[in-house]
Design goal:
20% strand, homodimer, 3-stranded antiparallel beta sheet, alpha/beta, 7-stranded parallel beta sheet, 12 helices
């Protein structure tokens, strides 16, 4: 296992990325990041998952796993004073990232190029790639008949709405970003991060060609559930709303046809019984908020999946 | 003199605007502001003159007459740390203005509408209008054959280049913003602020129809020169480079065919001799940095021009 590619959403994926990045023997680590959560806010191109992964690998992530540690909010406070709805609060340092990204994209750069620029600026070793440079947006239909952008659903309304359906707008027309397909086909192991399956991983798999390439690879997924619940966020509720079975059976169903290995938390060790001829289910301590714990878990995972 | 319209650049115009706004008897004050200095910087639409006038009328202008008092620079510092050239430094509160403007314009609002929104937000009584909602950019040709945007010339290179020619790109195709023409034709008095004639006022006059309307109005200009020199900025050097006579003779030439009255500083009282049958030259204390001095001067000016 020298070459590993991680499919990642935000916080959970960032923490596993940090663990994998700490492995001394890993030859090549690529992180393919969801862009379905990207949004235009205040005229800026915000890429929450890409930034969370970047900031976490740079060791500057905020206390809740997103944003930048010790950031200030001078611009947001001022915009609020001028009457702007600033429910989506971007810190000043975070805003600097978004300003550079927005103007670079307007100047003709691709999201891949901008992502590389930040990663290089922070001296990151893993390769970070948005799953696509094209426009891909997760759209949420609620049971009350509303259609919300992801950030409207997630941030502005605190993911309280009942989800009726998800759409990955643009995914069918989107091309994988340069390097994405080879990172999957050339990987000794593809890891699916403990991210929200429908909201963070399915948009990645929805990009043309990616699901097929992943299905041909050796794949290990890490469940985001603990006793059937997400540590934070609405993964369990969204999965139930979309008709998936509860608990890790739902995670298996979410990734049907893709997994060689599913890692569940040790508190769900009974789920080992969910193993099938295709997918082995194993249990481990999957709490990886602490960097040292993430590194231990990553080392174990790469060994276990070999 | 109940209805006055001021043609304004940045700092000097803002200070005269503040003086005029303090007059209790003024029925209607409109400030037509240069947009030739507007620039796209960091992907933001920066309107230096509009903002300087707005901030000064709101009483929150920075110590040098531009920007916002006690502003912080968290975003700029961060962008600089990420390798961006931040010679053009925007404070965080100033940046909030630019973010709102940029996203509003991208959403289809006009510059007039955005300007009105800010003015209303600050509770300003005078009407602020950009001279045009269309794109108008002052471009500087230097004697070394370079062509610079205004902000490159003014901020990045500190107006050290020798000017060979100025172009007001887009002016010929630009339409006066709604209300601009009637503010000129309906004014009892049009005042030309002590702004840089070629850099701040000529772009206003270059917009189709405006020079003619101003030439038909009763017009008083305030010279920006003191003993032949600008208090700050390159007005005297630019005027000389463009072949205008030195001193207030150059100001008269810059506004040839337009002025009924030219007010020069009392240290240049000898220039009263420049009076012609068309244009009366008078002297007064034209230092209006202090708000009380600006109000006294404005009261005197409106009386004198009657």
């Amino acid at each position: 296992m020298r070459t590993v590619t991680l499919l990642s959403g935000g916080v959970g994926g960032a923490r596993l990325a940090r663990g994998l990045a700490a492995l001394p023997d890993l030859h090549d680590l690529t992180i393919l990041v969801n862009v379905g959560d990207d949004e235009d806010i205040y005229g800026l191109h915000v890429s929450p998952d890409l930034d969370t992964v970047t900031y976490t690998l740079a060791g500057i992530e905020g206390p809740y796993g997103w944003g930048i540690a010790d950031d200030t909010f001078m611009v947001m406070d001022r915009m609020a004073a001028l009457g702007v709805d600033t429910t989506f609060r971007l810190g000043d340092a975070d805003l600097a990232t978004c300003l550079i990204r927005t103007s670079s994209l307007a100047g003709g750069a691709t999201l891949s190029e901008v992502t590389h620029r930040f990663a290089a600026g922070y001296g990151l070793t893993p390769r970070l790639l948005p799953v696509t440079d094209d426009r891909l947006r997760t759209v949420v239909d609620t049971t009350t008949g509303e259609r919300l952008s992801f950030q409207d659903y997630f941030v502005l309304r605190g993911h309280r709405d009942q989800v009726a359906a998800l759409h990955y707008r643009g995914a069918a027309e989107a091309a994988p970003a340069p390097g994405v397909m080879s990172a999957i086909t050339g990987a000794d192991l593809v890891v699916i991060a403990p991210s929200n399956p429908p909201l963070s991983i399915w948009p990645i798999l929805a990009v043309a060609g990616i699901r097929k390439a992943v299905s041909d690879a050796r794949v290990a997924a890490v469940s985001p559930l603990f006793g059937g619940r997400a540590l934070k966020g609405p993964a369990d509720r969204v999965m139930a709303a979309l008709g998936l079975p509860p608990g890790n059976a739902g995670v298996l169903a979410a990734y049907e046809g893709l997994l060689d290995l599913l890692v569940v938390d040790r508190q769900d060790a009974d789920d080992i019984a969910l193993s099938t001829p295709e997918t082995r289910v194993v249990a481990a301590d999957t709490r990886i908020g602490d960097p040292a714990a993430a590194a231990r878990f990553a080392a174990w995972l790469v060994e276990e999946a070999a």
